[in-house]
Amino acid sequence: MKRLAILGATGSIGESTLDVVARHPDKYAVTALAAHGSVEKLAAQCERFRPRYAALADAGAAERLAAVLKAKGLETEVLGGAQSLEQVACAPETDAVMAAVVGAAGLPSTIAAARAGKDILLANKEALVVSGSLFLGALAQGGGRLLPIDSEHSAVFQSLPRGFTCGRAGEAELAGVRRILLTASGGPFLAKPLAELAGVTPDEACAHPNWVMGRKISVDSATMMNKGLEVIEAFWLFGAPIEALEIVIHPQSVVHSMVEYRDGSVMAQLGRPDMRTPIACALAWPDRIEAGVAPIDFTALAKLEFAAVDTGRFPCVRLAYEALARGGTAPAILNAANEVAVEAFLAGRLGFPDIARVNENVLARIAVEPLASLDAAWRADHTAREAAREEASRLGPPAR
Hints:
CATH superfamily of the domain at 2-144: NAD(P)-binding Rossmann-like Domain
CATH architecture of the domain at 2-144: 3-Layer(aba) Sandwich
Radius of gyration: 20 Å
Shape: globular
Order of helices and strands: EHEHEHEHEHEHHEHEHHHEEEHHHHH
Structural class: alpha/beta
Strand order of the largest sheet: 4-3-2-1-5-6-7
């Protein structure tokens, strides 16, 4: 019986994880559920899965949750405040942690869980984008496993040689690999005339053609910043050099990523665009379990298309490669600027093309430091956010 803590339980990844877990009550037990402030959702999850702990980063919401669970007669212990996610992530009752808190807010609990020796099912990008080598150091210190949840990284992991260890690969493990190819749908604006992008709305940007996701990550998919951040993640997950990490547009989202070997062979993982597949893969690895995902009908696939990335249309991809090449705190700067820019766009204070402009201007403004500690990462994050707010205010809302 694997005992699981789910950080970000009320988000789309958390809900998909619980769906898979519910199909295998003999294999998995939920020991902790954590979120930011969704009292009603978390209460319903606690009533169904009966975790030992429930945690809400919003202390006031935690008090309300405690009252709701008490009224229901549940014995779940409720923790509140920013530190509560770290507490449940490190609890001795937990074997594995689904790290699915969105944004930099998920970084402390993910690193704490890694340092405590838990297996990390990584859906939180910031653990690797912001803290890279520091996170891998915590993982090595704790001795747990790192299993990717992003569909693209899961696909690469499944296409690498059996026994490959994420976060600890060396030249020997990648000796036969020529390229790692991350596929990208291109989002909702792949074919939209560039002149029309200035007028797109948040709802249009969030209308992903293939995936059902939260609004922030949907916008990142529309700008392809999401894919740029995945390149940074892949660098740390798989230990491949930057020049071996490529992105290819694949609008159908059936081939989730590929690994090309030196002998010319290409291994790919295919599947429906359903996050329950990579979640089930990580939960059961190296075994396989039912995820509730319908099989592909290959006879119904009309075509599979692939194309190169146009960085003129998607400048955020270029910025991500630039940040990775610069190293140090550059990825943290880019990530923080992007979070602020996307928030401003979703609030109607910034035009869609200006997301990339904010990111580029902030990356140029802020000095990059060595990533010597988490404090360095947090300083870069804070400074970049302040600069991004200034840039977003200067650029202003889109003309309608």
